[in-house]
Design brief:
Layout lengths: L2 E4 L4 E8 L4 E4 L9 E11 L9 E11 L8 E3 L10 E12 L2 E3 L10 E13 L8 H4 L2 E4 L12 E12 L2 E4 L10 E11 L4 E3 L10 E12 L3 E6 L9 E12 L7 E6 L6 E2 L5 E4 L12
Parallel strand pairs: 1-3, 2-4, 3-5, 4-5, 4-6, 5-7, 6-8, 7-9, 8-10, 9-11, 10-12, 11-13, 12-14, 13-15, 14-16, 15-17, 16-18, 17-20, 18-19
Length: 297
């Protein structure tokens, strides 16, 4: 049976739930999204078992999923380690903060990765809480993952974010990569503004035999600075070719902070680049106020 935690207009603080079914957390009133949900510290919301994948649905006015600088990190996950497909993680809020924490619907086996769907009426802050000057491999990465992990044969999943304001900072990441032999996934972002800085990254790539996925951004305003990266890479074979990056915005700003140039690239193998490469398949920039420091070209 699915488990639902409800506190209309109230507050839910979660320490940990582990089931093989759907978990629903609801802090909305009958007429409006309100209340608050906090998933903090090392709390894990994991409705999947070794043999069954569940789904997670969270709705509230204000949602915070944060670990601060502590380990273990807060996680909301619906992963698959078997032939079953991973589940869905969906979040609906007026305001959402994910700080040094993970939302995942990865696959480690033959099943496909799942989906992460996020709808935020106001601001969505995705904060990796990692100093860009530090070794990120020692601290891990925080963000949204629908990956096909190493050794898996399933495909990567889909991330869909709708937000009035999406801010990605301090190596906050979205990844729909295929590290095994499955296909890369899709990341789609719609809304008012997307700001990426201090090492923030959006990535859908393949490092096995599968095809590369797609990145689709359709916002009013796009601002990239401080080493922000939007990329998809075919890391193995030119036979399957590159994927698709489709960016549409009314206003686009690309700013270089010191030596940290922003990068948007698509193609075969990792590339050293500064600014926007011709490999990107679709770029619709209706207005580009580009300062000399942007490093475009």
């Amino acid at each position: 049976m699915p488990l639902y935690l409800k506190a209309p207009g109230g507050e839910i603080r979660l320490n940990g739930v582990g089931l093989g079914h759907t978990v629903g957390i609801d802090a909305v009133t009958a007429s409006t999204v309100s209340g608050a949900i906090a998933i903090e510290g090392g709390a894990h919301l994991a409705p999947s078992t070794e043999s069954q994948s569940g789904s997670v649905h969270i709705a509230a006015g204000n949602i915070e999923i944060r670990s601060g600088s502590r380990r273990p990190r807060a996680r909301v996950r619906s992963d698959s380690r078997t032939d079953c497909h991973a589940g869905t993680v969906s979040v609906r809020a007026d305001m959402l903060v994910i700080e040094h924490a993970f939302l995942t619907a990865n696959t480690f086996g033959a099943g496909n990765a799942g989906d992460i769907n996020i709808s935020v009426g106001g601001r969505f802050l995705l904060d990796g809480n990692v100093d860009p000057s530090e070794d990120v491999t020692a601290q891990g990465r925080a963000g949204l993952d629908v990956r096909s992990r190493q050794g898996a044969t399933g495909n990567a999943g889909t991330i869909h974010v709708q937000a009035s304001q999406l801010d990605m900072i301090d190596r906050g990441r979205m990844r729909a990569t295929a590290e095994g032999n499955g296909d890369g996934g899709t990341i789609q972002i719609d809304g008012g503004s997307l700001s990426m800085t201090t090492g923030a990254r959006i990535e859908t790539s393949t490092f096995g035999l599968g095809s590369v996925g797609a990145i689709i951004v359709d916002v009013d305003e796009l601002a990239l600075s401080g080493g922000a990266i939007i990329n998809e890479i075919n890391g193995v074979s030119m036979a399957t070719g590159g994927g698709r990056i489709d960016i549409t915005a009314d206003t686009i700003r690309l700013d270089k902070n010191g030596a940290d140039r922003v990068k948007i690239y698509s193609g075969f193998t990792p590339l050293r680049c500064h600014g926007i490469l011709a490999h990107v398949t679709h770029l619709r920039f209706r207005s580009i106020p580009a300062p000399a420091s942007a490093g475009i070209g």
